[in-house]
Design goal:
This protein is an alpha+beta fold. The protein contains four helices and 21 strands.
Length: 402
């Protein structure tokens, strides 16, 4: 009886273990199927994304760079050399006293126009006038005595030695008269050159000394600008060349005129420059010492083809511009690309250059967006009235990186 119950219990346990084992196997199979399905779906999604990306790249192709252009025209251009310097007066003197006296009369002021030899001030001269009158009187007496001695000598009534003494006395008194006249002349200070009194350093009543500085006189007809031209530009300079003078201190932007007066016949070996003197006519509100800009006009073309400098692209020592042109692509569609042109400047001013050939009047060249262009780059035009704004290629690269 006991053996029968134990056998049934063992059988039940065996059946239970078999059921549990079957359930575990089913669970593992279902999990494997789910993992496989998930990997398949992920693979399909990745493949689909790659396909979409490739399709998008193929659809977009090369991106066109926005540019702005200008049409070339003709006009006036000047080749100019520019320098800065301070004006000088070639005829400028300081007037000094030659006698120690008190100032009695002042005859000129700062700004007075004077001629050479004109009296500027008078000093006390009482002593000098008295000395001059005494010398004149003594000389007259000596002249009368000389005439008498001459008559006696001709009659051989006096010796030759006596006659020579009379002659010597007369000569000495003539020299004394000249000294007296010179001393009196020192009491009148005169202008050594013609010009304008720019500085007065003395007043009436002052006791001045010998060699005291009294006046400055400048000849405004002698104002010049000295500039130093590099030797490589020396062949462009010649006497009589026109110059423009700009002085901010004059209170306006109007150019003054000048001409090249002299060119130094040597090159400074230390600086490699040549001194050029530009003469400036008077009555142009220019004063000695003013800081000015000097422009030498070395060449002029009234009908030059003008290429704006903002269109230029520099590569080492070469200059290029980009010219857009319409081409047909492989699909038979029209598109705009650029060609890179090497320019050789003939004349150049502040805003434009005149090239030698290559481009012609009416050509369009790129003036904005050319910084990152290459030969054959795809471009699209934008303008001031367009909703789009042209930006340089390097700025677009920065925006894309951001």
């Amino acid at each position: 009886m006991t053996h029968v119950k134990g056998g049934r219990l063992g059988a039940l346990l065996l059946v239970l273990l078999l059921v549990l084992a079957g359930s575990s196997a089913c669970s593992r199979g279902e999990g494997a199927d789910d993992d496989a399905s998930s990997e398949t779906a992920d693979s399909e999604r990745r493949g689909g994304q790659r396909g979409d990306s490739d399709a998008e790249d193929d659809e977009n192709g090369e991106e066109a760079v926005p540019i702005e252009v200008v049409e070339l025209s003709r006009g006036k251009i000047e080749s100019v050399l520019k320098f800065s310097t301070n004006l000088e007066a070639e005829s400028e003197v300081q007037v000094f006293s030659e006698a120690a006296r008190r100032v009695r009369q002042l005859l000129v002021e700062e700004g007075s126009e004077v001629v050479r030899g004109q009296v500027l001030i008078r000093l006390q001269d009482d002593e000098q006038r008295t000395a001059l009158a005494r010398a004149e009187s003594q000389l007259k007496k000596a002249q009368r005595e000389y005439e008498r001695q001459t008559s006696l000598f001709e009659q051989q009534l006096i010796s030759e030695e006596t006659f020579n003494d009379a002659t010597y006395n007369l000569e000495q008194l003539e020299l004394s008269l000249r000294d007296a006249q010179r001393q009196l002349g020192y009491t009148q200070v005169r202008a050594p050159i013609a010009g304008t009194v720019t500085s007065r350093l003395v007043n009436v009543g002052d006791q001045i000394t010998v060699n005291q500085h009294l006046f400055d006189i400048v000849d405004f007809d002698s104002i010049v600008a000295r500039i130093y031209v590099p030797e490589k530009d020396l062949y462009r300079i010649k006497s009589g060349l026109e110059a423009r003078i700009f002085a901010q201190a004059a209170g306006d932007d109007e150019p003054r005129t000048g001409t090249v007066d002299r060119i130094a016949p040597r090159v400074d070996p230390r600086s490699g420059t040549v001194k050029v003197t530009v003469k400036i006519p008077r009555n142009q509100a220019l004063l000695p010492g003013m800081y000015v800009t000097v422009e030498l006009i070395t060449a002029v073309d009234l009908d030059a083809l003008l290429v704006p400098k903002k269109a230029l692209v520099y590569d080492a020592d070469q200059i290029f511009v980009f010219r857009p042109k319409t081409v047909t692509n492989e699909e038979g569609e029209d598109e705009m690309r650029v060609e890179r042109l090497l320019l050789t400047p003939v004349l150049e001013d502040r805003d434009n250059i005149e090239p030698a050939g290559v481009v012609e009047e009416g050509d369009q060249i790129v003036i904005a967006g050319q910084a990152g262009l290459k030969e054959g780059s795809l471009v699209r035009l934008v303008g001031a009235d367009s909703e789009e704004t042209a930006v340089p290629a390097d700025e677009e690269s920065v925006a894309a990186a951001d």
